[in-house]
């Protein structure tokens, strides 16, 4: 399955068939139905509500986000005011998603083998809000590798699980099959009239005529995809919130941090470093006296799912 840093997708994995692994290798994504059971989703949903309502203390490094349109509205605090929580690896309930065997076993079949040490690098619970007409609930077409200062890309994989029925109406994922075989393209903030959420970068000059697949899902369905795969999501045109939970994994045996200075990622890295520095005031530190690099931020975010961390 894994020889000298190359995954052999022609053979079956520990749980995936050879056909499933070859589909991922060809298209850059793989949809697994009924991957996470409803009782687990219920636990994660309740935890999200408890965090939003401040019934439990959120970990210090968790980021709680509001849609740009909600942040300027009359929404009261609570679940309807929060559109995303990031970096929940230190939350004892939500991190159970990252460790769920039905997810991790698929990840290992795609980016390693059963003995690989796998790291949870980036975690999110997304509560996509009903769009207010300004289309700010969209997520521009992008590649996740834009945000990551570690490589190689073939040993990084996202697991994205629907927490309820997700359709084109409420903003399902949209993927462009096969684009993971390309390169990381230049990204920037889209010039959308209604505004763009913080750090929602999109591919420059993206051609919307590219053939796309709308990934509609039932609760518990999970799509696994490559970090160079071009993807995004549409606006939520329903009256309800659309929830999904996700984790980006990396194979710690293979992946290493890289310097993004002088690359198309440099501008984004500087933006995220500035955000991180502002948060240091919570710990009584002066941001102007602290030096951070992009990899430092990801070292703090990362948490081992199994095995012993050595590189990330």
From TrEMBL:
Cofactor: L-ascorbate; Fe cation
Matches recorded under InterPro entries: PhyH, Phytyl_CoA_dOase-like
SUPFAM superfamilies, sorted: Clavaminate synthase-like (SSF51197)
Enzyme Commission number(s) of this protein: 1.14.11.18
Coiled-coil stretches: none
Family stated for the protein in its record: Belongs to the PhyH family.
Protein name per UniProt: phytanoyl-CoA dioxygenase
Source species of the chain: Caenorhabditis latens
